[in-house]
Fold each of these.
Amino acid sequence: MQKEEEKQKKHIAILGATGSIGTQALDVIAANPDKFVVEVLTSNTQADLLIEQAIRYKPNAVVIGDESLYKKISDALWEHDIKTYAGAAALEQVVEMEEIDMVLTALVGYAGLKPTLNAIAAKKAIALANKETLVVAGDLVTELAAKNRVPLLPVDSEHSAIFQCLAGEFHNPIEKIYLTASGGPFRGWDKTQLESVTRAQALKHPNWEMGAKITIDSATLMNKGLEVIEAKWLFQLKPEQIDVIVHPQSIIHSIVQFTDGSMKAQMGLPDMKLPIQYAMAYPQRIYADFPRFNFLDYPQLTFEKADTETFQNLNLAYEAMNRGGNAACILNAANEITNKAFLDEKIGFLDIARINADCMAKATFVKKPTLDDYIQSNTEARRIAEELINP
Ligand code: NDP
Ligand code: MG
């Protein structure tokens, strides 16, 4: 009987369990023990938190990226009968475990690509937070998902909003989508003011608490650029069908406009637990006690144009999308290096977009890349970005 009950639940692997999305996903699971079971948890370097999570959620297996921490986790978890692995290859393979129904990709950056492709090849449903995977190789990922009939369920709040607006619309064509953007902590600032902004200022997002990389990407508008490319692949849109509108309150999470001119928007308080839960429970909606939105607390919802003259990264993303091929892979790789260099206080805020643009101009363009081409482009673009930072 117990066994039958366990089978009814969705068995979930969380890649990047110790991060912002990962820990919130575990909160959703803790609130719904009758619906979800944790099958696998992974982290990169946070061994203590991973051990704590493993003891609490009793997964079948855990993986730590940093191999030097393997002994620590295996010593702590062997008596709990939890399998332990380490390294990037283990992360790629663990997603194939038979017991897994769904893989939540909540790890950050290019590192998500191979595990996600492997999970799709193994026919696991994907709850996709790791947008970089679609930016790098959206064509390969969506083709494989279509071939294997694997759903790619968006976790990113804007894409979850679009996905929710499309429920019940079957094949009704989309005219356009509007991705909303908070504008980040430097909305309204000019280039002179931005020249001297610090890491600490950039890490203070007005509406969302997120990991460091995406918080910096939000401040430079790179995050919105990555999301535009993510939307192109998820919803099979042309670049000119995707628009960005700045909405500082982050209440409307995005909008779909259909060919009759009607627009549908999804709204609510900014809380990532909602899109995480929607993706994990899809196609069901399950009860949540998250705080409810009150209209009278927000008498004004406002909208403005994105300042792409000051925040060049959003333009670079459109340029990469229009160019096609490996251009977005190059932009993503450059940005992973410049984002980190800014966090390490090696370059200034405006250098991020400047070096990203230089890197796009210098890296080898490939029109119809294979997976190997993407891997090579990623390596090449990172090297070029490093050279531009340390000439
Ligand atoms: P965090 O930095 O908070 O967490 C990242 C997680 O991935 C951690 O568990 C980290 O392990 C692990 N990790 C980092 N690098 C590697 C690597 N090279 N190999 C294996 N594991 C790795 O990030 P977020 O949770 O903020 O973001 C995760 C993804 O979700 C990103 O792609 C982001 O763009 C996307 N996203 C996030 C949102 C948010 O609100 N946070 C909103 C929408 C999308 P460790 O802790 O050990 O370092
Ligand atoms: Mg988002």
Amino acid sequence: MEKKELLYEGKAKKVYTTEDPDVLIVSYKDDATAFNGLKKGTIVGKGAINNRMTNYIFKKLEEKGVPTHLVEELNDRETAVKKVEIVPLEVIIRNFSAGSFAKKMGMEEGIKFLQPTLEFSYKNDDLGDPFINRYYALALGLATQEEIDAITKYAFQVNEVMQEYFASLNIELIDFKIEFGRYHGQIILADEVSPDTCRLWDKDTHEKLDKDRFRRDLGNVEDAYQEVFRRLGIDK
Ligand code: ADP
Ligand code: UDP
């Protein structure tokens, strides 16, 4: 599979067309951004880790019945994926208070919820990905009721699978963001799951093993990504 044309360059990945109109190649970069692009940097080795971690977890999710865009890992940084029309909703699941939730609710971080939460942001960089609910999404035609139902079902399923899997690595899955797309009329999981898009804490020490180390200048950013990758046990 060969890259043809650069279709889109985002903050963390480049997306290329291929000779197959149904298949794209995503290429993961080491670039890191936070606060809607205001903070920029590099996390050496991140692209390969996020690529391989996403593919490893997407395979597990497929086995558990969650359809994903994964076609084939091509190399450390590049993966062939099904070309979808991205549903412009960032789907955020939380198991513990953290980040914007903790701030909004005046809570400290790390409080376990009675049950997981789900929220949507409208995927729009110019507006800073504002929080919206399903009625906004329906009113604005961002997704249909059936699509939102499928997205909600899959998102909680992804949480179940990932929570259990990370627990086996002594990692607490605090929260995460996922994106879905339309592929021949079906909703499938797209984009990535990585320390860029998940909050991952060591279960014993509560050490942060994710992008908050970059966002909050906590140091040892590369080490945290490497540590998650090491625990996954997928390095050859
Ligand atoms: P951003 O656009 O937020 O800067 P990235 O740098 O990760 O993010 O860019 C990747 C882009 O590709 C995102 O806009 C994402 O929604 C999109 N994308 C992810 N998977 C697919 C797919 N299978 N088909 C089409 N687009 C995808
Ligand atoms: N997240 C993400 N991309 C975004 C916004 C959030 O991947 O554009 C992830 C983030 O890494 C965290 C979860 O979604 O795991 C919840 O983020 P939150 O709403 O608390 O926002 P933040 O504090 O990161 O601004």
Amino acid sequence: MAEEVVVKGWVYKRRKMGAKIFIDLRTVFPQEFTGQVLQVVVSKESLSDDEFNRLKKITQESALEIKGILKEEPRAPGGVELHVNKVLWVNEAESPYPLGKKAHSPDVLLRNRHLTIRSPRYQKILIIREKVTDFLREWFKQDGWYEVFPPILVFTAAEGGATLFKVDYFEEIGFLSQSAQLYLEALIFSLGKVFSLTPSFRAEKSRTPRHLTEFWHFEAEGAWYRYDDIMRAQESAVAYTIKKLLEDEKMRNWIKEFRGDISILENIKLPFPRIKYSETIDILQSKGFNISWGDDLGADEEKALSEEFEQPFFVTHYPTAIKAFYVKETPEDPKICYSADLMAPEGYGEITTGGEREENIDRLIERIKREGFDPELYYWYLDLRRYGSVPHSGFGLGIERFMRWLLKLYHIRDTVPFPRLARRKELV
Ligand code: 4AD
Ligand code: MG
């Protein structure tokens, strides 16, 4: 291999070794090097004095356009290095770079998020994330679902009132969407089965490593889909996404770098285990948790439960009272509903919530009132039950929750370039 190429990127590190200078370049063109550094070898004999002297003192994050020969070098990242023979263009960065050599606290990194995202770690996360949404989309499209584009500014809540962000809507109150679900329910009467990928917002004050105030929500809703049908769609899409990621050698290696062991991902089998909420209470009690039937599963409970599994698994048949107003009660026992959460294993917990929707209009009105919402505002949603109502089900997957498990990241903020957290301070 001795190919001449033009390379464009930024100086990540520079070091001198004998008469040579080595530059680790964060390369975006050609794209194949993005996410890893390209080792650039600078030697006096291949360059003019002027060019050599410029590169000798080049500062971190300076932008470079250089030409050279790619040579195999097993010790270099990616197995190749560039022997530069022409400097085409330089834009020298101011020095010192705010994120210079030493390690920085999370606060400094968040304050400098616009710079932090340049590092190979974030390049990798961002590229893996793009693939995740590509493969989820791909599964749903291949299975005949239409992608639709619901609104973000809304006037009715889908989830609890406590997590609503209010917006001044020409002197009236609007909200930022918590979930596209109610609109997807309307759209199934037009297109049958639909999905969307939208931002969702939750005014969650709780500062946990798994909550953002803005997250990306992959949601689907299908007409004539029942409880089991929507669980099958979810597990198939998740298993497909993981399989496709692992088929791509680069993604596979990167995922391995982040999470270490990938055997759990490799061994995913369909169908995912399904376990009833009441059984989870038994398990948790036997592990010493002070929990009884009717309590919601908190972060600690989900973690303990999910450590028991080697595969993603569904928790099914939750108490109606701890789920949103739209869940369908089971005919045998109205205290139990057709809602299911998909849990990631290894202690990570909930990544989706979904289930079958209530069709009975009186029960819906009752439950909307119980949430403290005004049924008048939901006139359009209730119309869906008046005009040609059908059994239907759907779910929502948080892309960031999925990514957090996929890469075994401690904090969910690292799955998004510009995280929105329950504080303004130090946020870009
Ligand atoms: O469980 P949730 O609240 O369910 C819904 O919103 C349903 N309406 C979805 C549907 O049926 N169409 O949210 C769904 C998923 C969660 O399982 C989680 O993955 C993610 O959205 N999520 C969050 N992710 C990050 N930060 C938060 N604050 C999140 N809240 C929910
Ligand atoms: Mg949920």
